[in-house]
Task: structure prediction
Amino acid sequence: MTGIIGAMPVEVDRLIEAMENKTPETISRMTFWRGELNGTPCVVACCGAGKVNSAVCAQTMILRYGVSLVINTGVAGGVGSREVRIGDLVVATGVVQHDYDTTPIDGPEGGRRLPLLDEELLPTDAHASAVLAQEAEALSPGRVHRGVIATGDQFMSDVNRLHAIAARTGALACEMEGGSIGQACALAGVPFTVLRAISDNADGNAVEDFPKFARESAEKSIALLLRALPRL
Ligand code: ADE
Result:
């Protein structure tokens, strides 16, 4: 069983529409749709924005549905200085949480490491990410990036802050769920990956760009996922 998580309805609605033999179950105010996508057994849920909701959703998929892979799909802010543009696809090699910081008590290295995991960067599943990147390249030639995605409980719209995060972590894109889904999965030993389409550049134009491009970008991510699922 593969778990698929999106934060906003637009990030999962088309997947739920495409699902066959589906049944819903609501847990913690989240509706989990179990069924088949392109012949693949899946559970799909919309978790709401942010790290806590997305971690609760991932943990529920792990404990209740026994998922063996979790995929986080949706939109993200792209780091323009790394040539990541609106409409591009980003498949994460790893995720970091840019707002996790205990450096005042644990020092510059230790203060970024996640509790119990002792890492800052959580790697995504190599096979699932490679398949997604390959299918992405077939769908959007030349507009696919592989690299770190940075997660935090903030909608980013300040280019200076974005560049500081990108310089420290090497991130190509920022969003609000991938890192916490990765953390829940890493704690449980369940493989995960993150696939995002760029809706804005997390800069001074992000507030205008996000509503303009979110649907189109989210659906690009969904189209790619549907293509790739039978190979995952
Ligand atoms: N998701 C899409 N755009 C984003 C941004 N600018 N900041 C955080 N999450 C996002």
About this structure: The domain at 2-231 is CATH 3.40.50.1580 (Rossmann fold). The chain has seven helices and ten strands. Residues 206-228 form the longest helix (23 residues).
